[in-house]
Specification:
- This protein has helices at residues 59-64, 71-74, 83-104, 127-136, 193-203, 220-225, 243-252, 268-279, 292-301, 303-306, and strands spanning 4-5, 22-28, 40-45, 51-53, 117-121, 139-144, 162-165, 178-184, 204-215, 239-240, 256-261, 316-322.
- The chain has one domain (82-322): Vaccinia Virus protein VP39 (Rossmann fold), CATH 3.40.50.150.
- The protein has 325 residues and is an alpha/beta fold.
- 29% of the residues lie in helices and 21% in strands.
- It is built from ten helices and twelve strands.
- Strands 7-6-5-8-9-12-11 form a seven-stranded mixed beta sheet, with helices on both faces.
């Protein structure tokens, strides 16, 4: 039976509506990290329905979970001799993201003849921005709390990209600068999502678009994998969304939601496979070379289900919103 919880030592409030109580949903170990015995509690706000982490770690402790074991920072090289194929898959994903960015501006006569500026928040390894720049000639800017994603790139790897380290309000971005803003699996990491979305609203041009892709808590994969679902990614994720809560916080932050799809650019098999690794207690810290062929076999077997992702929520959703004024 669900229990009403409070923040340990002081009232724990919802990061969106400030309600003090939450219904306990699940308890997880640390995901894709060594199990040191700590458990993380996820609850649903009894007022607005938001699902959020009830006992997030402090800032210094949280940094440890983004260290050398964090797979997105390791890149394709983590897969050993299969790295070229992983890079090919990465380029395919980036092309899908470029497509979303282009479609979000389709028919926007207000920007006709203008130089388009795009902002990617939480850009990590900025392969998407590089693909976007090459495909469109747009001026592109990436912001991340760490430069780990691009620090070790060779000469010219990220040429032409404006990459900045820090928060979006701390890196010198001018209000009203961007026609397109993207958040690819970033918003779930943010403890105060409305604050970030409001800041991005100020940075957007009137008529500018925002694309947000996040894990879908109301999905088949979460229902099956339960506490092992990678959408929780405890404790790196602070909030997980369902269609209603994502639409609500976008509207609350000044954006007009123009569409929400129960799919996105992330391959649902990747999320499922990561959930399987959680269930098996793997930390993914070593070489993944030996896991590649089983990964591909599983992906092949899952293709019939993946083909239905536009009709069956398999774990990802994408919202497109616009700044109207």
């Amino acid at each position: 039976m669900a229990a009403a919880l409070s923040w340990r030592g002081s009232p724990r409030v919802c990061p969106v509506c400030d309600a003090p109580d939450a219904e306990l949903l699940t308890v997880t170990a640390a995901h894709l990290a060594p199990d040191e015995g700590k458990r993380f509690e996820w609850g649903r706000c009894t007022t607005c329905g938001l699902v959020y982490l009830l006992n997030p770690p402090g800032t210094e402790e949280l940094r440890q979970y983004y260290g050398a074991l964090y797979l997105p920072h390791r890149g394709p090289e983590a897969w050993g001799r299969w790295a070229p194929l992983v890079r090919w898959a990465e380029r395919s994903r980036d092309r899908r993201r470029v497509g979303w960015a282009l479609r979000s501006l389709s028919g926007r006569r207000a920007f006709s003849g203008e130089e388009i500026s795009a902002l990617d928040v939480g850009c990590g390894r900025p392969t998407f921005l590089r693909a976007l720049s090459r495909a469109t000639g747009w001026r592109v800017t990436g912001v991340d709390s760490s430069d780990a994603g691009w620090r070790d790139g060779g000469p010219g790897t990220w040429a032409g990209l404006d990459l900045r380290t820090g928060g979006v309000e701390d890196v010198g971005l001018a209000p009203g600068s961007f026609q397109v803003t993207t958040l690819w699996h970033v918003l779930e990491h943010v403890r105060e999502p409305c604050s970030l979305l409001s800041a991005l609203h100020r940075l957007a041009r009137p008529g500018g678009t925002l694309i947000v892709e996040v894990p879908d808590h109301a999905s088949l994969s979460r229902a099956v994998q339960k506490e092992h679902w990678i959408g929780y990614d405890s404790p790196r994720h602070a909030v997980v969304y369902e269609p209603g809560t994502l639409s609500r916080i976008l509207t609350q932050s000044g954006w007009r939601v123009e569409g929400l799809k129960r799919y996105g650019t992330m391959d649902p098999w990747v999320l499922w496979w990561l959930g399987l690794q959680n269930a098996r207690g793997r930390d993914l810290g070593g070489s993944l070379e030996g896991a590649f062929l089983p990964f591909v076999v599983g992906k092949t077997l899952a293709l019939p289900l993946a083909a239905l992702r536009r009709w069956i929520p398999l774990g990802v959703m994408t919202a497109v919103a616009r700044r109207s004024s």
